[in-house]
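Weekly structure sync, notes
Attendees: PL (lead), two postdocs, one rotation student
Agenda item 3: pending single-chain targets
PL asked that the sequence for the first pending target be pasted directly into the notes so everyone works from the same version. It is reproduced below exactly as submitted, 158 residues in total.
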Amino acid sequence: MSEPDSGAIARKIIDAGLYMVIATADEAGRPWATPVYFANSDYGEFFWVSSPEAGHSRNIAVRPEVGIVIFDSGVPIGTGQAVYMTAVAERVTGADLRRGIETFSRRSLAHGGVAWTPDDVGPEAGLLLYRATVAEHSILAKDGRPDHRIPADPRAPR
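Predicted structure, written out during the meeting:
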């Protein structure tokens, strides 16, 4: 029996997902998790738009380390698979803003959403563009052991 291509599994899950769940914590360490619509760049950067007043946005401002999971919640019990990521999140500004919002807009349009421009994000707009830069990806091993994760690099050559 051959080993599954964990990178291919991770790519498939990420490509099919519309939302990712971001786990953050505030200054005191109180956890908060929230789903956000996302776009990614080469599976290593994940972009989303949020209010700076949202709990996860306030948490990222004081503690940028985040956990992310993308999964299909509609599969039968016992068959689920997910991509788990550790990352550092931040508000996107400056030269990276145009590239980030273009990435986000392209995916939004592909899913029937609206086009986004740099003018749509910023303090005056009430929404900001955020980015999580991934340090590690993993998936469940599916070897019968509970919660046994294996590395999965979706950026690896296909």
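Discussion points:
- The two ends are 20 Å apart (CA to CA).
- The first strand starts at residue 19 and ends at 25.
Action: rotation student to compare against the earlier draft before next sync.
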